[in-house]
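Posting for a labmate who doesn't have an account.
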Amino acid sequence: MNINKSNLLYFFLLLPLCLIFCSCSSDSVDINDIVPYRKIDVYLDLTYYNELTNNTALYFDYIDGNWVGYKNHGIFVYKSNGQYYCCDASCTHDVEADEHLELNDPDDDDAWNNGVTCPICGSEFILSTESPSPIPGSTAIYSLKSYNISLSGNKLHIYN
């Protein structure tokens, strides 16, 4: 069996390229690929929202003269373990839907659990972490898009 040296050279040159392009990709997904980027830079005066206590959440679609959230779906601001968090109100299962996530009824002990629910697909997310994940069994598989928060006095700065 006679192997041509030039064919062997091509084989060793192409092998690394094939390995690079055919290797497994990362399972992580950039949330900006799911919920497109929308600039947000608003201030929320907590003096007017004293109902935002520990383990509570509020929905906002208009803050400081600006519509907020992807497709103006709004945002949720929530407080958990003394920390403030903020996420988009777009369901990660169908971000192009006209509906936004809705807060579960805080007066219903069986339904509240710091959660929000999609009125279209029924996916439920728990607002107790920086990046709220869907509960097991939900149609959505990706966490909600989070926004940055900084607190200065009674002003909560929400931005990306």
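Reply:
Got it, the structure tokens are right above this. The chain is about 15% helix and 30% strand.
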